[in-house]
Amino acid sequence: MKRHPHAAEAGLTLIEMMVALTISLVLAAATARVYLGAMAVKSTQDDATGLSETARFASDLVGRELRKAGFRNTWQIGSGAVAEFCPSGPNPLAPIQGSNDRVSINPASADFSGGTQTAIANASDVLRVRYYGEAANATVALADCHGYPVAANTLVEDTLYVAADPANNNEPTLWCYTSNPAPATASHPGALPLVAGVESLQLLFGEDSDSDGIVNRYVPWQLVAQAHKVAAVKVSLVARSPNPVALGPGTTTFAHFGGTSAAPAYPATMVLANNDAGAQFTAPADSRLRKLFNTEIAVRNFGYCGQ
């Protein structure tokens, strides 16, 4: 009987095992790096998309408010109300009221002063619009800035401003205060945060000084001569992403209305001459994405004073 020798058992040496483990760790680290990089890119893209939506929504909200300024349905109550928002009228309220580069505000006050003050973020401007409600059988009922309907012949003031939201980690937010008394809820009249992430708001008012229907100049509120002659408003806002991003920019300065065009609406020389501190906003180096958004809104109820 012939014996067959058994083959010697073979295994990995310690060096081979160390090499294999090292290669495995390198591959795992590379895979993790690719995964984390992809997640960071996705997070940045999501924040960039949300940032654009924030800027568009805030701009649209300000535009809707401006289009209501000075509205009253004179057909329902007779021609005597046509001068409601005119200087020669019995109650010459301004359809639009502003305040340039405020430090704090009491939105329930006639001139934004006194009482309990709320700190304004980044020397932002304040905008107030006045209008009357529409009848219940109207095709489209007017709503205040909180979305609630305004009763017919009820004068309402909506005031927009930028301030920190203590209920949202002090995120800079576009707020709106409304004087609309109905419905009877805790927020009416009152202020509500509407758009989180709005950091800076600046306004230029287009004044038709010669009553020809064409804007002659754009100025900050303190230089407006007659509020009832404001035919358009330039709105500029800076919005930021909710979270820091891996490749976020450093310190950035945004020039509201300035830009690089040959004839900007509000050039740097005018900014300096009027000491308009809020016209330039320097963002901190917090790795957040930011976007400057500009638009111009026509005042629909402009021009019926005949002055």
UniProtKB/TrEMBL annotation:
Ranges that cross the membrane: 12-36
PROSITE patterns, A to Z: PROKAR_NTER_METHYL
GO biological process: type IV pilus assembly
Keyword Glycoprotein on entry: no
Protein name, UniProt field: PilW family protein
UniProt keyword annotations, A-Z: Membrane, Transmembrane, Transmembrane helix
InterPro entries the record matches: N_methyl_site (IPR012902), PilW (IPR032092)
Protein source organism: Noviherbaspirillum pedocola
Domain of life: Bacteria
